[in-house]
Each structure stands twice: as structure tokens, then as C-alpha cells.
Amino acid sequence: MNAIEFIDLKTQQQRILPDLERRMKAVLAHGQYIMGPEIVELEEKLAAYVGVRHCIAVASGTDALLIALMTLSIGPGDEVITSPFTFIATGEMIALVGATPVFVDIDPRTYNIDPARIEAAVTSHTKAIMPVSLYGQCADFDAINAIAAKYSLPVVEDACQSFGATYKGRESCALSSIGCTSFFPSKPLGCYGDGGALFTNDDALAATMRQIRAHGQDRRYHHQRLGINGRMDTLQAAVLLAKLDVFDDEVAARARIGTRYTELIEQRNLEGVITPYIEPYNTSVYAQYTVQVENRDDVQKKLGEHGVPTAVHYPVPLHLQPVFAELGLTKGRFPVSEAAGEKIMSLPMHPYLTQVEQDSILSALQK
Predict the structure, then answer these.
(1) Is the bond leading into 314 cis (omega within 30 degrees of zero)?
(2) What is residue 2's predicted lDDT score, i.e. its pLDDT?
(3) 3-state class percentages of the chain: helix first, strand second, coil last, to nearest 5
(4) Which residues of the chain, if any, have pLDDT below 50?
(5) I need a labelling partner for 87 at 20 to 30 A (CA). Which of 12, 93, 159, 195 fits?
(6) Which backbone phi and psi does 366 adopt, to 5 degrees?
(7) Do 134 and 179 reside in the same domain of the chain?
(8) Structural domain tally of the chain?
(9) What b/e readout covers 102-122, taking b as 16+ CB neighbours within 10 angstroms?
(10) Residue 209 and residue 349 in one domain
(11) Number of separate helices (H) and strands (E) present in the chain
């Protein structure tokens, strides 16, 4: 058997290569490398997929978060409620616009923000709630949106890991005021570089996001507001269009592989392994297949010796990162996030993982 890949982009590329090359050659032929026609085509297809009126393609998932916050005029003196158990970009963009991230601990089963803890964190300075849909599963948006409505707050979904997942039959990115996602290469839908997108049903928000994406312009050389260079490259749009044709099939494969992982771990009675919990009203795209284990470093080392790559997303919660030390949130403040950070470990996960490979991974884990 060949070496097990943590994420296998090569097999996917072979599958879509003719369409991929055709689309990329078309970009090379027309030469509109920034905001070419593929951008418009991609935005229309992604908006239709999610089921919203507007998609704004941008340069990265991080830019998507930044543009969302700028669009909502969030800045110094404001607070944004979010999860401490996520990639740095979530808290980083809140701080970058001058606002303060206010962390709320997570649900121990889903790793997503615990809605029962949110209302206590709302103050007169709160200007938005930014839940993260982690590991491919949406947060509990009905509960979150109810709190937001009570206090007239917008909700921004950080869906950088959950594009393609559903919550009560609705697509991730269509669950709140603004949805943000990432097309980083390792994501369930990824390009061959950085890329991202914003989604909304609000016409005014969409118009503002389009302006901010292009230096605040409402037309050429006429700048309505401060913006950034947040445009997606046309070549990346071409890659995503080729991948979008097989995305539904890959989402189904991810669900099948994730479910099989869980079933086999439970069948083998691996008592020291806690499998992902998926809410009955959710589907997950398993951006990662993440378990909890004791003695993680030792387990990772031994799995590596058996040819099984692993990763940790995320070992240090945001409130314990040096960059946020000035918030004064010491260890013990968010115990659920801290405990998860010490035990979580992701196993190889992608739509082309074979049953033979999966069996080999689980045999190594059992040992």
C-alpha cells in the first residue's frame, strides 16, 4: 500500500484534470487575471449552492472575516463574541479592526460555541456574534440567532471549515447575517492557493462588501470608504469551478468515510478514543476527523511509526495565545476549550480515503 496521505489532493486532481486544464487555459487566453469572468460565474454558482442572493469572492477566508467586520462598522471600543477554540484568524480579525474578542467556552461534544453561555457575555459594547462552525459541523444557529435578535446583533458565521455542511436542512453560510468561508487548499472545497467568499441575503451589506473588497471603490477611482485589496485571482476561481462539479460527490464521500470511522472505532471498542459527535439535525463535511485521546503526543508518535500522519487543530486556545495576553484571560478561564486542546487529534480525512487505508489507520490506532 502507498503511503497514507493526511489530505490527498493528487487523486482529486487526476479526476478533474481535463476540466481543470480547460478552465485554466481559458484564463491564460483571455488574460483577465484579476476579476475575470470566472469570478462572476463562481459567485453565481456558489450563491445558488448556498441558497442566498449574494456571494462575494475574496482573496482568503481571513479576508472574508475582515471584510464582514468592516462592513458592519465594527471598530475600537466594540466587542465581538466568539469561540476561543478555533484558528487564530477568527480572533485576529476582531482585534485587527480594533475591537475586543469576547470569548465564550464551547460545547464539549461539538467543539462549537455553547449557546447557553452567550447571553451572559453580552454587554452594551457587544456589536456582533461570530460563531465558528468547527471541524465541518455548523454551530447551533437557531439558538444563537435568537439571542442575537433579542439584542439586535448581527451574526457572522465563520464557516471556513464547514462549506457544504447543513444545519436543519439549510446550508452553512446561509444561516446568519453574513457567512464567511475559506478555500484554502486543504478545505473541503479548496483552490490551489488562498481564496475565500462571503455570503448574504442583504443587498446593502453585499454592496458594501464588494466595495471593501476593491479598496472601497463604488466605481473606478471613486472611493466611498476605506477598503482592502481583497480580490480573488481569476485562476483560483477557475480551479474552484472545476472542483465544484465533483463537490456534491465528495461531500457524500466525506460523510460516508466519517461515519465509517466512528462505527469502526466503536465496533473495536477503543475505549480511550472519543469520536466526533454530530448533532442529529446536522450534516458534517468532516473538514477534519477529530478524536480525543489520552497521552496524545505518545499516540501521535506511535501512529507516525506505523505510517499514519496526524495533526492537531488546535492545541492552544486563543485566550492563551501570547498575542491576547493583554486580555488577562489566564488558564482555567475556559476549561472545556483547554481540555479539548490537550486531547484532540485529527486522523487522515479526504474523499478519496479507501477502506483499506481506513482499516490500516484504525489497526494502528488500536495498537
Answers:
(1) yes
(2) 78
(3) 45, 15, 40
(4) none
(5) 12
(6) -65, -40
(7) yes
(8) 2
(9) bbbbbbeebbbbbbebbeebb
(10) no
(11) 10, 15
